[in-house]
Design a protein that fits this description.
It contains 2 helices and 4 strands, in the order E-H-E-E-H-E. By secondary structure, it is of the alpha+beta class. GO terms for molecular function: copper ion binding.
Length: about 70
């Protein structure tokens, strides 16, 4: 298992959290998604390291922006 934390811009409410959690959670291999609304962070636990482009696409699909590290 591996865990990675990403900064997400644009989340402001519980609906935002649910949208991001749903989209990122649908990525194959993802076992857990934790969203910290106040910090604007998404922590993803997966079976293997994820391609950042895959996470970016899921966050984009939810309507938000992944902040480049």
């Amino acid at each position: 298992m591996t865990t990675a934390t990403y900064q997400v811009k644009g989340m402001t409410c519980g609906h935002c959290v649910n949208s991001v959690s749903s989209e990122v959670g649908a990525i194959p291999g993802v076992s857990e998604v934790q969203v910290d609304l106040a910090a604007g962070q998404v922590t993803v636990t997966s079976e293997a390291p994820l391609d950042p482009a895959t996470v970016r696409a899921a966050v984009d699909e939810a309507g938000y922006d992944l902040v480049d590290a």
